[in-house]
Design brief:
10% strand, six-stranded parallel beta sheet, 10 helices
Length: 251
């Protein structure tokens, strides 16, 4: 199906959108916040400390983001990248302060940086994504946001998109319901139920490899990959039925 730009939207009972990188360019804000947090953390590591002797303290790069962080719940992304760098920290608690040297503390440190950037600079949705949202609204198709980020409501509000969606399943909702994050399909399955749609009748729209894998694992009727940097080949290999560079192509 790759290469086709025709989607019979009326034949689908719901469309479930990832947020960052799909509807809004907040992926750029997230990437900047991750880079600031991990850059400072890695550069400050003393490899003479017990437990850090084999730590890889090379500079943080965008490749680290795409390989270990993109699309995952915040604390899982922290743990995955630390493991890849040979670093073991206590898990800690979501209540840990941002200066705590724990997985949760680092995750909270990143979230603090993201909030600062969002409040300072705001966020504008992708024009092509808004065009598709307008088209689906006119068709009366129920829409949902499924995001690993705990900041999803704030981002939607800043972008002026809050009233477009039947439900928003974000990191806080997933934690409250005990739903595993992407690449598990559970958050998408929950959103589909909230929209009154069976998985085979619903569409998943994702830009992250882990999110596309979640759509494929949930046996959704259509999984659309939006190539914002992951690459068409990677998204297709993860299970996308269709890959586009911009959602305006499908409006």
């Amino acid at each position: 199906m790759n290469g086709s730009r025709n989607v019979a939207w009326r034949s689908h009972a719901a469309v479930l959108f990832d947020l960052d990188g799909v509807l809004t360019p907040t992926a750029e804000v997230h990437m900047a916040a991750w880079a600031e947090m991990f850059g400072a953390f890695f550069s400050g590591i003393d490899t003479g400390r017990t437990g850090f002797e084999h730590a890889d303290t090379s500079p943080y790069t965008d490749a680290d983001y795409f390989a270990h962080v993109d699309g995952k719940p915040r604390y899982e992304g922290v743990a995955d990248l630390l493991a890849a760098r040979g670093i073991t920290l206590p898990q800690g608690s979501p209540a840990d302060p941002p200066d705590a040297e724990t997985v949760c503390g680092l995750g909270n440190r990143k979230n603090e940086a993201f909030t600062t950037v969002l409040e300072r600079d705001g966020v504008r949705p992708y024009p092509g994504s808004v065009a598709l949202l307008d088209h689906l609204r006119d068709l009366g198709v129920p829409l949902a946001v499924v995001s690993s980020s705990a900041n999803a409501p704030a981002v939607l509000d800043a972008a002026g998109l809050t009233d477009r969606f039947v439900t928003v399943v974000d990191g806080r909702v997933a934690a409250a319901l005990g739903l595993p994050g992407k690449p598990a399909p559970d958050t998408f399955l929950h959103a589909a139920r909230e929209c009154g749609a069976a998985p085979g009748e619903a569409v998943v729209v994702e830009d992250a490899v882990s999110g596309v894998r979640a759509g494929a694992a949930g046996a959704f009727g259509l999984v659309v990959g939006v190539d914002r940097g992951a690459g068409e080949a990677a998204l297709t290999a993860a299970g996308a039925h269709l890959v586009v560079p911009d959602l305006g192509d499908l409006a």
